[in-house]
Amino acid sequence: MAQDTLTRNHTTHSDTSWRSKVDGQGKTHIYKKITASDLQVGDHLLEHVLGHKRQVATPILGVEHTSEGVIVTIPDRSGDNAPVRELYGHKDPVFISKTPHLEQYNAGEDIFVHLDKRSEDMEHQQQNRMEIATKGVEVSWVNIDTAMEELLQSQNAIQADTHAKAVQSGAVDLSNYIVLGADAVAESLRIDADKFFMWNRTLTDSANRTRAHSEKLEDFGDKIADVAMQRAAAYAQGALDTATTVAIGQRQRTFVMYLDSPIAETILDDARSMGVLDQPKPEEKGVLLAKIPPEAVLAREDGTLVAVPMAPQELKQLENHAEVHLKSDEIGVYKRSVNMEKKPQQYPRLEGHLKEPDGTWRHVGFYVDKDNQPRAVVSIENKDTGLQEKLSMQFKEKVSEQTQKPFLVGSAERETGKKLFVTIHAAEKDQDKWVFAHFAEKSGQDWQQVQGKGGTLKQNETMKRLDNDRTSDFIKDKLGVDVKGLQRADQGHKRSLSGGMTL
What we know:
Residues 1-23 are annotated as: Disordered. By secondary structure, the protein is α+β, with helices and mostly antiparallel strands. It folds into 4 domains: 26-101, Roll (SH3 type barrels); 118-265, no CATH class; 279-336, CATH 2.40.50.140; 350-479. It is built from 8 helices and 26 strands. It has helices at 111-152, 157-186, 193-223, 227-257, 264-274, 312-317, 461-465, 470-479; strands at residues 5-7, 19-22, 28-35, 44-48, 55-59, 62-65, 70-75, 83-88, 93-97, 190-192, 277-278, 283-292, 295-299, 305-309, 323-328, 334-336, 350-355, 361-368, 374-381, 388-399, 406-413, 419-429, 432-443, 446-449, 453-454, 458-459. The strands form 6 sheets. Strands 17, 18, 19, 20, 21, 22, 23, 24, 25 and 26 form a 10-stranded antiparallel β-sheet that branches. The radius of gyration is 30 Å and the shape is elongated.
């Protein structure tokens, strides 16, 4: 009978449709936008690579879901294709590709030809590491047990110190081998179910034995009067306690990784028996790691894990990797506590977005503060990393020398040292009025107008719900545009203004 093999990431992609685009060279690109939590082994992640003017589709070799985010293993496309690990937020938007001609990075190495072999090599290396770790744990325990026996029979401080250091050395080795084995499990795309549970038993056994030895040393220290011997016992006890923490921590790590495997229920029971899961409290708050009916598994803010029972309908409504607040009823079944969940507060803003030809996004959120000062938060999204640079600026009223029309101008210094200018103008066409933002950057005496599509400022949902607010009143008074009276269809993409900034 064939042995069971555990694999992760059995979820399917969302219903987002594939899109296509023809580039300047006549090649068709097929791509889809999803969230990082939906990434699967075998997908090809679109990313910008050093030395490429366009994006490259990189094959995903491994996906690990954690409470902090999704760890994706991919070949280093700007280097030698060696596997590297990158962390994405669960909700981070990413693009995956179906276009083969994007896959090639190194013309001298066909990544498709070598991908299977590379995966096999990685698996072989991980199996070797697992064998080394398992053997290392066994040897460490032989050394710890021997040193413990001699320490408990010590007659003086010199003997106690020598044997305590041997216990400490064995405990350090034990911790290191446990981490080595856990790394092998974490980085494995496939793992034999029997080996997986055998490794978990090793971690459980190690945690139980280090706890037992620690208790013996505590009892030993209480019974002896020699201060130096007590110090030696405490020294060894500390090393054992550290090894216990490592064993439980790595057990928790593998537990989280395989919550989406076919044997999640068994893994949950195993984790509960070892003490990986904490006792539920009347109210629980954390990130939902998995739904294993009839329980929801949460990662609390302090890093501890807990599983709470929920009714099927309640459990179905929860979203994986989202923060949830749950409250127990009188019989110990948990329900979502909507009142406890604090949704991010949205302030009334006029918001605009501009996309540059190279794909860089610029966002502006304009508002008037309680002191009636016009301000804005501007963010510029790095197209290569997805990270955002956020800037705050205050605006001044100006009158254009060319058009004699009023406008607003604000500025802030960027991380690059360049000075970013944002101007807000009124526009009019066929009795249709609106406001838009324009961007420019200055370095020394050099000005650079920022070209792109978009820039129209629109009310966000919070502003739409207000009958009156400072921001809309200010724009109406200073620029003559009644943003509250605008009832137009979304025409922002049709109002790409290519004119230069006028100061």
